[in-house]
User: Fold these one by one.
Assistant:
Number 1:
Amino acid sequence: MEEYFVSHKEYKIDAKGRISIPANMRTALGNEFIASRGVGKCLALYPMEEWNAFMESIKDKVPQKDRKTLQFFFSANAEKLSLDGQGRVLLNESLRKQVNLFGESQAMIYGNNDHIEIWNCDLFNEQLSSISEQEVEDILDKYEI
């Protein structure tokens, strides 16, 4: 069975732009992984297998005009990374600026099933609080889940 990333917690970003990845997420993330822009104002860390599957699904399911946009957005903002000996990742300054993390001393690490997202804490909390229980119930009902 596939291991999913779950939960969220605030973590410190050091002066060099490094952030610790929770110990319970490191194995599933792998030795090398892709960091890219996520949907919304966040960074997304994908295990290599998940990144490849994500890019393949764009290639296979999205018409060329839209595919080029998605590929450009995600790939132009992507880089292959690995954790240091202390389980930290160095976040690219350009990406940190794009998602309101540059100059921040804390970030929210959120396990989003097949990838990890790193958010500005205020933006994460705004996004989380903007979803009502009724909206969730309506979506579950709509898809009969």
Number 2:
Amino acid sequence: MKEYTVLTINPGSSSTKMGLVRGNEVVFDKTVDHHKEDFADCKTFADQEPIRVAMIMDALKEENVDLSSIDAISGRGVGLYPCAGGTYQIDDLVYDHAKKDVMGIHHPATLGIVISYKLSKQLGVPAFFVNPMPTDELCDEARMTGIKGIYRPAKGHPLNQKQVAIHHSELMGKKYEDCNYILLHLGGGSSITAHRKGRMIDGNRAGDGQGPICPNRSGDICVDDVARCMKKGMTFDEVREMASGKGGLLNLCGTDDLREVKSMIADGDIEAKRAYDAMIYSMGKWTAMMAGALKGEVDGILMTGGMAYDTELCEKLKEYVGWIAPVYVYPGSFETEALGFGAIRVLSGQEQAKKYTGRPVWEGFDFAD
């Protein structure tokens, strides 16, 4: 069987991550750093596209990559309407929606699709996106709130989580679509989701003030918490920032670097220890909630993300959740593998590429709001 080679593109605010995946291995995984002056003349993220492409081509030249060996491009899927998970071919509609940023993400990650589309035309190969950021597979019950017409969106880390779940299933000699998992992506913002038979049916709204305490997210806050913050003089926007980027360990300890927090604890900082323990406690609580969403039928609990490198954190967390199901740890990010292997599954005929419809996968219930 042919070993397909896929170039992966994953743009960030200050860098573009790129990789080359061949067969079942990552040939290289490279980060091209950017500086503010690189984009000094760019008014929009879209304007950055030719500059980033030139840097990518230079990096490929440095790695001595034969461009004719590339069978497909796979880019980060951001800026589209919510859709189910899977691998999608990037067509004109996908490109148009990503370039327009139809969901108003306002982040350079939308260039993942834009750059992949342009390079695919240049190289004469197909382009794909895999398990996009707006992946929405919530069950109906998870969408509901107690207020008519107000529904919960899906917000998590589907690209990394689904790759870890697929990889773990393969190690167990099973298929992801036949298993139930709880996935914990433990990073600056953490998402804890219930995966039932290959679908992410529920999870916290990572970054929206719902979920566990994180390095720079507040974790669960309710209406009364918001009111108290505002009575103390905070504006609504400042409260939102606390929920989505300035709360958690950053607010409690003055840093969102877990290594610094651990150093503070080692030096006897009681407040840092309390914050660290509370974060782990909240992660355990949300994991148990997802077990409830799966009716206790859990084949495994899979921990991933940057904080999964902290063995003390993982061991303490196991004390809270080990009674639910076996716990497995896959530290770090597997986004390059996810982008590459997703495209290879389509190229090799293991999966059929899905088609982006240009409409949200869920637009409301049949009954009137």
Number 3:
Amino acid sequence: MQVEIKIDSSYKEPKIIILTDSLTEEVNSIMEKLSEHNPGILSGIKDGKITILEQNDLLKVYACNGKVSAVTDNGEYVLKIRLYEAEEILNPSQFIRISNSEIINLKKVKSFDLNFAGTIYVELINGTTTYVSRRYVKKIKQILGM
């Protein structure tokens, strides 16, 4: 496969053209990757100020007492969306739901401990801990290759 990139200031957004003699599995795979949902912007409120939250900075997003919050190294932010809406915005290859009320950033996990009966203990890099609910254990084990 040949890859070519042309820089042209007349284009205001990227344009991708695939030239091929036939529609192969490789071409279909490329088209799927290019058309995947592009993770959007997540904003949170802290101390009365709205802040754009970088997905790489998020440790977890959780729902508690009717509010959805996002935790970063810089503190906790209240989101004005529901948890399922946050899940749709977050990059699915980086974030995973571990319970009905919590989504974690896999890149911010320090360790998973499977020694607990029927559940998984999760330690994040900032030292906070949480648990994978029984309903999501199978999914986590698949991701971990177990």
